[in-house]
Design brief:
This is A to I editase domain-containing protein. With about 375 residues, this protein is α/β, with parallel strands linked by helices. It contains 10 helices and 16 strands. It starts with a helix and ends in a 22-residue tail after the last helix.
Length: about 375
């Protein structure tokens, strides 16, 4: 089974309420579907994670999230986040991992190729020509209009669909032109960064050697070669092979549809969650962190609560909080800073920090 079909097969198993809906006014919703698959040396495809989603949580939520909110809810980032959760769960499974020559780490078996299916080109530089076909570019919003919505607040980073004529530049997540500011970078930029860091996050990288994204699968009808070539040749890093598929996602983007507010993220054979504003459905509280039951298993706080002890066992840390933990990974931070400098205009998001030890409740004041 090809990668696209394997991911769509998992989506098809979802309950009707977890898929895009027809609203009471008759509007049909659309979404993006993404999934991470492993393709072994016998060409057998196994879907590991899948997700839908097109939303991002505003930057201001980092002031009270403390790791309990999933900030980036675009499908491909959710699928990769869930893949990191899966890695930590299976790190001791000899089917997928083996001993490493690096003390305290495991190595992903080379027989597996990590491939990512996305039903739309990644937002940002890899989709500029495709998006420009039927949508107008945004105009700059001055600070005087609303600082929390202005492009000036991004430190000069192009926001969403602003300045179509600027290609090869870092962009923040689109949202609507009038939506609250997010400094979360586009999926194109985040995937470019993973060409150097791999698909694993800070937690996983402390106990696992880098795992590379070998291939990306997108619909042939939405693929613009020059955009992908430009986007993923901005830096010297692991080359991602781009493959196309003839299959079209039935709930895909269409001018007559509206973007779904909800998203879904799941691990095959594991947890499946419906997310709204980065928390479990029904748990959103305006300007407040969710209570523990409303937190996604895939948010940073919950991932540490589940796997922090395992991580600390193999790679002891003196860090007292999550930001210190990330900064302590000196080589990873060096590579990250180097790539961000190469890409240019990379404004850092807020810290979204939380304590690693001595905290029994994730509901922060």
């Amino acid at each position: 089974m090809e990668v696209a079909a394997a991911v769509v097969a998992q989506f098809d198993k979802l309950k009707p309420g977890q898929k895009p809906q027809t609203r009471s006014n008759g509007d049909q919703e659309w979404t993006v579907l993404a999934g991470v698959c492993l393709v072994d040396d016998q060409n057998h495809t196994e879907c590991i994670t899948f997700a839908t989603g097109v939303k991002v949580v505003p930057e201001r939520a980092r002031d009270y999230s403390h790791g309990t909110i999933v900030m980036d809810n675009h499908a491909e980032m959710l699928a990769l986040r869930a893949f990191n959760w899966w890695i930590l769960k299976h790190i001791d499974d000899d089917k997928y991992f083996e001993a490493s020559e690096i003390a305290g780490k495991r190595r992903f078996k080379s027989k597996y190729s990590v491939q990512l299916y996305i039903s739309e080109p990644p937002c940002g530089d890899a989709s500029m020509s495709y998006i420009a076909q039927d949508q107008p570019a945004w105009k700059r919003r001055k600070v005087s209009e609303d600082h929390d919505r202005s492009e000036d607040a991004t430190g000069g980073v192009a926001r969403g669909r602003a300045q179509f004529d600027e290609l090869g530049v870092v962009r923040t997540k689109p949202g609507r032109a009038d939506s609250l500011l997010s400094l979360s970078k586009s999926c194109s930029d985040k995937l470019a960064l993973k060409q150097v860091l791999g698909v694993i996050n800070s937690m996983v990288s402390s106990v696992v050697e880098p795992i590379w994204l070998e291939a990306m699968v997108v619909p042939e009808s939405k693929y613009v070669e020059q955009d992908f070539d430009r986007c993923f040749n901005r830096i010297d890093g692991h080359r991602i092979k781009v493959m196309t598929t003839d299959s079209e996602f039935s709930y895909g983007k269409h001018p007559d549809k509206v973007a779904a507010a909800n998203g879904v993220v799941g691990v095959v054979g594991g947890p499946i969650e419906t997310l709204v504003h980065g928390v479990k459905l029904g748990s959103y509280k305006k300007n407040r962190a969710p209570n523990p039951k409303g937190q996604s298993k895939f948010c940073n706080w919950q991932m540490w609560q589940t796997y922090g002890e395992r991580i600390s066992r193999d790679n002891p840390t003196k860090a007292q909080n999550y930001c210190e933990f990330k900064e302590s990974q000196i080589e990873r931070q060096r590579l990250k800073a180097h790539v961000q400098k190469q890409l240019g205009r990379w404004v850092r998001t807020g810290s979204d920090d939380f304590p690693l030890m001595g905290t029994k409740s994730a509901t922060m004041k």
